[in-house]
Each structure stands twice: as structure tokens, then as C-alpha cells.
Design a protein that fits this description.
Order of helices and strands: HHHHHHHH
Protein name: Methyltransferase family protein
Enzyme class: transferase
Radius of gyration: 19 Å
CATH class: Mainly Alpha
CATH architecture: Up-down Bundle
EC number: 2.1.1.100, 2.1.1.334
Organism: Halopenitus salinus
Pfam families: PEMT (PF04191)
Structural class: mainly alpha
Number of strands: 0
């Protein structure tokens, strides 16, 4: 670990300022959705709400990238173990996220009502994209090895855990009992049913391989 040089320190300070504004925007709009009758998330057909949310998220992501580069390996985690463990977790999180995202159309991710997805990754978790983000943030935190990055990752995970809670009233309104039945059998993120289903899939795959 080594202290940041003055120029890098200023860069990190600016990144933190941008991240703070962006995080306040995301938490603020999600909080308004949760606590009032106004709905900012999911934005639905309101293009300006969608643009507002993704402007905040994009700014926050850029700030995290700046911190990752500027404060790389600036913390106390043991090297190379943290990198060797963190990188595969981050890649796995990215794979889970993209598999969940590819199963839905962009408009449906944003809350424009379409089909209720219950197959593929959505048979294991109601929010596989968010599970992927959480895994990705955990892996990236280990790989980057920066206390500042860890703080930003924790804030990111915090709003990711709130987003589905904000989405569920819209989903129940749109799909009614169909969504209620889905929610009863599939966990919001990951649960025992997720592990059971994965176990059954693995066992079935082994059985097919043995029979061949």
C-alpha cells in the first residue's frame, strides 16, 4: 500500500463527489417510489425518468472505474489471493447479469409491461440481474483492493437491494395472482429453492452424462 500522490488524490476526490451526487439521486428516486405514490422506478413509459436513472447510474459507474484505477491495490487485502479470488467472482457475476438481461427485452427491464418471465434464470431467482450485480461488486471489491472502492460498492449494492422492492407493487398490479404464485415459489434473490433447483439440474445433467 502506498499513499496517493496529490494529482491522483484530487482525481479520487472528484470521483467521490460525482459518486455522492449520483448515489443521492438513485437513493432519492427509489426512496420517493417506496414512500410516496410517485413512481420513479421502474420508470415504465416515462422516458425522462429512465434517462434520469441511467444518467445517475452511468455517472456512478464511471466514478467507480476512476477509483478502481487510481486506488488499485491500495488497501489491506492480501495479494495475490484477493485478485485470484475476486476476478472469477466478478466474471461470474457479469455472466449471471447478462444471462438475466438477455432473457428480457429492454423495455420490460424498464417496467413497460410485457411478458412475466419465469423460465431460464428467472426460474432460480426473481431478480437474476441484481444477483449478478451483487456478485460482481463483491468480486470487484476483492480484485481492486481499495477501501474507497469497497465503500462505493457497498452503496451500489444497497440500492440494488432496494430496487426490486420498489418494482414489486408494479409487478403485482400488472400480473396479479400470476406474480403472487411466482413469488411464492421463487425467491427474490437467492434462497433454498434456488439451491434445490440447481442441485436437481446438476444431478439431472450427471445422470444424462452417465447414460451416454
Amino acid at each position: 500500500m502506498s499513499p496517493l500522490d496529490p494529482t491522483t488524490h484530487v482525481l479520487v476526490d472528484w470521483a467521490l463527489a460525482i459518486a455522492a451526487i449520483a448515489a443521492a439521486g438513485v437513493y432519492g428516486t427509489v426512496g420517493v417510489t417506496l414512500l410516496t405514490d410517485l413512481r420513479f422506478w421502474p420508470p415504465g413509459d416515462a422516458d425522462w425518468k429512465r434517462r434520469l436513472h441511467w444518467t445517475f447510474v452511468t455517472a456512478y459507474t464511471i466514478a467507480m472505474a476512476v477509483v478502481a484505477v487510481a486506488d488499485w491495490n491500495g488497501w489491506m487485502l492480501a495479494r495475490p489471493i484477493s485478485l485470484a479470488v475476486g476476478a472469477p467472482i466478478a466474471l461470474a457475476g457479469g455472466a449471471v447479469f447478462h444471462r438475466g438481461a438477455n432473457a428480457m427485452r429492454t423495455a420490460e427491464v424498464a417496467g413497460v409491461t410485457g411478458d412475466l418471465y419465469t423460465d431460464g434464470p428467472y426460474a432460480y431467482s426473481r431478480n437474476p440481474q441484481y444477483v449478478g450485480i451483487v456478485l460482481g461488486m463483491l468480486g470487484a471489491t476483492l480484485a481492486v483492493n481499495s477501501a474507497v472502492f469497497a465503500l462505493l460498492a457497498a452503496l451500489h449494492v444497497g440500492w440494488v437491494l432496494l430496487l426490486p422492492i420498489a418494482e414489486e407493487p408494479h409487478l403485482r398490479s400488472a400480473y396479479g395472482e400470476e406474480y403472487d404464485r411466482y413469488a411464492e415459489r421463487v425467491p427474490r434473490f437467492v434462497g433454498r429453492e434456488t439451491l434445490r433447483r440447481l442441485g436437481r439440474e446438476i444431478a439431472a445433467g450427471d445422470s444424462r452424462a452417465t447414460s451416454e
